[in-house]
Amino acid sequence: MSAYNKTDIYPSTFILIGIPGLETAHIWISIPFCVVYLLALLGNCCLLFIIKTDSSLHEPMYLFLCMLALADLTVCTTAVPKLLSLFWFHDGEIRFEACLTQVFLIHSCSTMESGFFLAMAFDRYVAICNPLRHASILTHSTVGGMGLVIVFRGTALLFPHPFLLRWLPYCRTNIISHTYCEFMALIKIACAETRIRRAYSLIVAFLTGGVDFMLIICSYVLILYTVFHLPSKDARLKTLGTCGSHVCVILVSYTPAFFSFLTHRFGHHVAPHVHIFVANIYLLVPPMVNPIIYGVRTKKIRDRFLQFFKVSEINMFYA
Q1: Is residue 120 a contact partner of residue 246, using CB atoms and an 8 Å limit?
Q2: Average pLDDT of the residues in 258-276
Q3: Which one of 71, 75, 84, 211 has the fewest CB atoms closer than 10 angstroms to its CB?
């Protein structure tokens, strides 16, 4: 009897049920999710290939963009294959260890994405406010060091999360009302005091996404101050244009992220399917949209992309 209770309290598997209330529509929801995931894979892989093979793109902004693309690929690939398996084959069962791995990879890589946004904002700040020293400040070694610091921060701060969840008893249920394993989703089904764990998660979120966002705002305040002191309107518009892509990806990423974070902790009256749907948009849409934004708005990447496909078409024609 005691062995049974131990198994019941510390389950070896969890059951993901998908989007509550929309179970009958899972197969239809999976179609756009699958298309978006494939576009994210294609776009980010093309972006990485183009930047790697074109030495003229080995500049700080594009190197940070490569790091962001790798984090995006990790986040969506960690969640989407299992999500599609759930939607297509009703395969909601996931091992406890795999669930904790999902929690760590999704949260840590999301934290890294926030850090890369901040690094890109710093690049724009130096390029606009101190252009003569841009090359000497953001050398390749400096960019690599910043990337390592961001990865280390995301790993170190989120590394405790799986252990905080591992030691909890789950006597209420092993059913997770979500499409993937997420920290707060597991906290909600635990039958123990979780106040300290919730506080730690909240502090980490503030020290990463919150502080990053405030520093990004500060950098753009300084950028705007510099831009509005430029002598001509054309110079102001041209300078602001170099920030357009970065601002777009920040809005696309931070908007669903903040909504998901706030509704999970404070939005008790928000319908569960709304929250979970937004959480999936946060995982899927930014990885798809980021390479499109930079591909459309950045001439170097756009020209290299078109050149790559033109060469491919010629090779296919002669083959």
Answers
A1: yes
A2: 74
A3: 211
